[in-house]
Description:
Layout: E1 6-9, E2 13-19, E3 34-40, H1 42-52, E4 57-60, E5 62-64, H2 67-78, E6 87-89, E7 94-100, E8 106-111, H3 120-130, E9 134-137, H4 143-155, E10 159-162, H5 172-175, E11 180-181, H6 185-192, H7 198-207, E12 212-216, E13 222-226, E14 229-233, H8 246-259, H9 264-278, H10 291-295
Parallel strand pairs: 1-4, 1-9, 2-7, 5-6, 9-10, 10-11, 11-12
Antiparallel strand pairs: 2-3, 7-8, 12-13, 13-14
Amino acid sequence: MNSARVLVVGSANMDLVARVPRFPKPGETLFGTTFATFSGGKGANQAVAVGRLGGPISFVGCVGNDEFGRSLLESLRESGADCSLVETVPTSTGTAIILVDDRAENQIVVISGANGCVRPEAVASAVESVEPAVALFQLEIPLEAVSAGLRRAKAMGATTVLNPAPAQPLDDAVLANVDVLTPNQTEAALLVGRDGAPEDLCDALLALGVGTVAMTLGASGSLVATRAGKVHVPSIRVEAVDTTAAGDAFNGALALFLAQGEPLEHSVALANRAGALAATRHGAQASLPSLAELRAVL
């Protein structure tokens, strides 16, 4: 096993963000105010989060042979991520087209593009090659690829972490290979098929075979649940301006500190702080904190 190395398997998207005074009606053309592109995708964001905190990180995913793909790889490499196992495929890089109006409401269209080309056999092979201490997954790539990676990582003795976002139903065979599940309350409710209090939802997820649940609760921190009991882990108070990457900062930090051998509760406490810091800045990858910034709030 590669000591303390984190493997992130997931998506890489280019976010195309246009600010508009209001959303256009069908058939209407209107003038926007600003336009910007940002490196994104839950997988890439979480890999960058690990790299910013100084951890050894490998990223596995797919990008297209285009400018967006090259730009995303550059952002990952700048954070310290090893991208040698990223595949370049003959389709467009994943994109998210985002309209934001004057009320800060948004409309988003996601085109999976190359993210839909991540193959189960490639993920399993990457896990074998990297031999990570922790393998971190999300649900923006084909579920078959996620399932294959979880199964292989679990068999090799890595700690498996699944951030079940975007939320979708998962069968018990997938969840049985998850050591740490990191849903928010909405995602947890979808996974168990009903609404409920955080404590009840955690119990239901544990009953499905998950080893540990670290449920994120926004400004309230996180609820950590194992078969031995539950503990609420508070966060720090911040003036939040943009929560876009707070969850990605949390997941990347959690994976890194678990890989470094920190106890579960302490790892979650550090991850809470990383998520809170990310919420104090605009943007996705631009908001992810460095190790020095995290140490400053300990």
